[in-house]
Amino acid sequence: MGHALKALILASLTSQIQASWTGTFGPVNQRPLTGSGGSRPNIVFILTDDQDLHMQSLDYMPFVKKHLTDHGTSFRRHFCTTALCCPSRVSLWTGKAAHNTNVTDVTPPYGGYPKFVSQGLNEKYLPVWLQDAGYNTYYTGKLFNAHSVDTYNTPFAAGWTGSDFLLDPFTYWYMNSTFQRNRDPPVSYEGQYSVDVLAEKAIGFLDEAYEAGKPFFIGLAPVAPHSDIQSPAFKHGNHSNITEVQFRPPVSAERHAHLFPDAKVPRTANFNPDKPSGGGWIRNLRKQSPEVIEFNDYFYAQRLRALQSVDELVDRVVRRLEDFGILDNTYVIYSTDNGYHIGQHRLHPSKQCSFEEDINIPLIIRGPGVPEKFTTDIVTAHTDLAPTLLKIAGAPLRDDFDGLAIPLTQDGLAQAKDDRHEHVTVEHWGFGANEGLILDWYPRARLNHTYKAMRVIGKSYNLHYQVWCHNEHELYDLNTDPGQMVNLLHPDEPSTRTLLGLPLQKVTRRLDSLLFVLKSCRGQTCTNPWRALHPEGNVESLKDALSPRFDTFYETAAGNIRFEKCEAGYIVESEGPQFKQGLLESNLDPNWHEWT
């Protein structure tokens, strides 16, 4: 299987960005930070696994509200760029889209920790850069998939002052986890609840970081609320084929097992709808039976119960920072790797789609100068987080970042409403898995789940555009259709000739051209793709591009995006042209290649 897009990737517009940050001092009783750090702020990053935003999971986390939402800023339009664990995490820690990391799956040959290493990324990601900036760095929990009892030391993950990693194949086995500390051999914690084990390690690292007296970064990555995954082969430290793996609802700590007896998946308009929606194999799904819905409600409640230990972790960490007197000089960031769906569009529990449930995810930040009890609709993505963290640390930003540092002050957020980019690139390769099933006949994996997509959000528009590898196109207007139920380009939908008050074809031609650029963009071209199409600088948004003066350009410069085949992973020869010969040649990066 493979896919090839006829595409143009134009200018690689890069610039060396240097940024510095002077943190504010904490309370009077704060222990002074020594060394080159001075008053530079600390960073605590809490990263959950598969947590939703659109099914209201945050409403069941009172400590997150008390310590983070009420004392920080919530980013309501934050997106992952690949709705799958390992590719998303690699993008988060490198600041690069999956098509530039070449980590596109959870296991080899297209993904996982071995792929991360083989691409040279073990020396080129956040903890290495933070250490270079004078920070101590700590991490406990899940780093990447296929970071396992067999691969953890080939080589060890670089850049960590202290680490205690969850390892495959036990990562998702809530009551039988295996952790590996620093350079020590793995240790089994069979019979202990995974998130509670992690919480003790987290507090230990926080104590260690405080005692060291230097500015620090601590990453905490509990497995909740991911599904529980087991296989008989796991008992012996072996992996299993996906068809042999047992996906089960998440497991909670015993003390939380009685909570939320009446919780159900929110019955939104796109929950198990009477009318099919989506594209590809999704549009052919059967409506779910009452038996399936009952199971999915239980699956949902188990997710909420599993998150209670994460909520308690947040409380313990914030109170420890407060006890040390350094909370006011610490950024606490809360997010997840990707979202989740249960029942929306008739889908069984899982992720990997580009619907809002899968890609629009929680991001909450509190820290020095961050507005409290504030929400913002500026567009941000996981590729923005590495630049943001380096800016907090006062470290120079890299010119190969595909993201842009997120503003963290009232003035910066206000300015970003007018001048920040309006788009997010979303991409996926390979298969789509179904994690929560009670149907013997239902396939565990769906093949040909490769697509390129994007979200484009302006003051007067809110669009989702996607091209599948079998060449089905999807376009949704979320202003009028927030549940993404009506594909404006599907022949079975009512005929739609206009969008945004303009001919539909005029809008889609602009979207095609934008996706042409984004599908292989690098560096600043990813954050300012319109400049690649309009190097004069007179187009900064879709609204600008829709001006009648550009009609001839778009009618002649771009055709419909098409795949030639469906690939299981990123293969550059199958990705189509990296740029179109003769178009803006003066701006091309000579290190790029052209494929025919």
Write a compact overview of the structure shown.
The protein is 24% helix and 16% strand. The protein is of the alpha/beta class.
Instruction: Please name the CATH topology.
Output: Alkaline Phosphatase, subunit A
- Mind telling me the CATH class? Alpha Beta
How big a fraction of the residues is strand?
Answer: 15-25%
Indicate the multimeric state: single chain
> Structural class of the helix and strand makeup?
alpha/beta
Spatially, the strands of the biggest sheet line up as: 7-6-5-4-8-1-11-12-2-13
What is the H level of CATH, i.e. the homologous superfamily? Alkaline Phosphatase, subunit A
Profile the largest sheet: 10 strands, mixed
Low-confidence stretches: 1-38, 580-596
As for the number of domains, it is: 1
Helix content: 10-25%
CATH architecture: 3-Layer(aba) Sandwich
The average pLDDT is 89
Principal-axis shape equals globular
Separation of the first and last Cα atoms: 18 Å
Instruction: State the helix count.
Output: 15
Number of strands: 22
